[in-house]
Amino acid sequence: MRAVLVEEFGAPPRLTRVPDPAPAPHGVVVAVEATGVCRSDWHAWQGHDEDVVLPHVPGHELAGTVVAVGADVRGWRPGDRVTTPFVTACGTCPECAAGQQQVCRAQTQPGFTGWGSFADLVALDHADVNLVRLRADLPTSAAAALGCRVATAFRAVSDVGRVRPGEFVAVHGCGGVGLSAVAVAAAAGARVVATDLSPAARALATSFGAEHVVDPADGPVAAAVEHLTGGGAHVSIDAVGSPVTCEASVRCLRRRGRHVQVGLLPAAVGRPSVPMDRVIALELQVLGSHGMAAHDYPRLMSLVMSGAFPLGRLVGRELPLEAGPRALSELERPGTAGITVLRP
Ligand SMILES: [Zn+2]
Ligand SMILES: [Zn+2]
């Protein structure tokens, strides 16, 4: 098969031919039809993730068709159209038994712990626990985003942030996960303030339902959010994962507000300075949100199929697999609004 192969962290990867994967007894192999280019692929390429072993194939946000099935798999057959959460959970550890597969202690992740979906084929573990069936009328390019950014945003807003109608929600960073958070929060009846350095991303955030947008270049973000919301956001989401956006997210909250960390923030990008004096004095909550379990997808699918979430407009551009190396390097300084999807 063809694959985008990383042989040295940070050095340009190349499209080459590698052996086809075989399914584990509990797993499947999926023919990749679309795979999103996500900021965590960039972190993996840069060597920020200690799970990644070279040589490596990135890619964890995919949609495609099952082509091979392991002997122990019960629920899936060749020809099934699927996506998967980027955390492929084991299904049997204490966290999985409690329904919290997104923090499975024996998890694997395509594109991190093993080879991912910047390729013609990808192997996925524990198919009966993790695969999510795609409706025939869901466009494949947009469906890929359900594997990481849309699902992550949905759970961060709905379940971890517990956003309620009428609340102010601040979203820091309007790449794929930030735009998704804007749309999910707006669909929930929240009033959204979105920030991004890119004018194109801010314009897209407005079209996804943001009531206000803030350019961080204009001055302190926390003060702008406090002004626009009459005292601060009820919920604030760091959708970038940088020390600056994390601190701004905590600082823009009103009393008893909830900060949700979604951007990855590996140690290599620096440790954020979270004002814990403010956390205690204002009784803020600092929460983490890590993807979403497969069994939680039906609520997200209902939102998408209702039309209240503009999934199709999330895709900024579709590129062939050959463009994978270039698309990865462009994540350094995103110049396009919306997500980039590779079509092997
Ligand atoms: Zn991702
Ligand atoms: Zn588990």
Question: Topology of this structure?
Answer:
Blueprint: E1 2-5, E2 14-17, E3 28-37, H1 39-46, E4 62-69, E5 81-83, H2 94-97, E6 121-124, H3 127-130, E7 132-133, H4 140-144, H5 149-160, E8 168-172, H6 176-187, E9 191-195, H7 199-207, E10 212-214, H8 221-229, E11 233-238, H9 243-251, E12 253-261, H10 276-281, E13 285-288, H11 297-306, H12 311-314, E14 315-320, H13 324-330, E15 339-343
Parallel strand pairs: 8-9, 8-11, 9-10, 11-12, 12-13, 14-15
Antiparallel strand pairs: 1-2, 3-4, 3-6, 3-15, 4-5, 5-7
Helix pairs in contact: 5-6
Bound molecules: zinc ion (2 copies).
In brief:
The chain is 29% helix and 23% strand. The protein is built from 13 helices and 15 strands.
Hey, roughly how much beta strand do the residues contain? Answer: 15-25%
Tell me the number of helical segments per DSSP (H or I, 4 or more residues long): 13
Task: Encode the helix/strand succession as letters.
Answer: EEEHEEHEHEHHEHEHEHEHEHEHHEHE
The total of beta strands comes to 15
| Overall geometric form | globular
Mean pLDDT: 96
Could you please describe the fold and organization of this structure?
Helix content is 29%, strand content 23%. It has 13 helices and 15 strands. It has helices spanning 39-46, 94-97, 127-130, 140-144, 149-160, 176-187, 199-207, 221-229, 243-251, 276-281, 297-306, 311-314, 324-330; strands spanning 2-5, 14-17, 28-37, 62-69, 81-83, 121-124, 132-133, 168-172, 191-195, 212-214, 233-238, 253-261, 285-288, 315-320, 339-343. Strands 3, 4, 5, 6, 7, 14 and 15 form a 7-stranded mixed sheet that branches. Helix 10 (276-281) links the parallel strand 12 and strand 13. The N and C termini lie close together (10 Å). One zinc ion is lined by residues 89-90, 93, 95-96, 104-106. The site of one zinc ion has 8 residues, from helix 2.
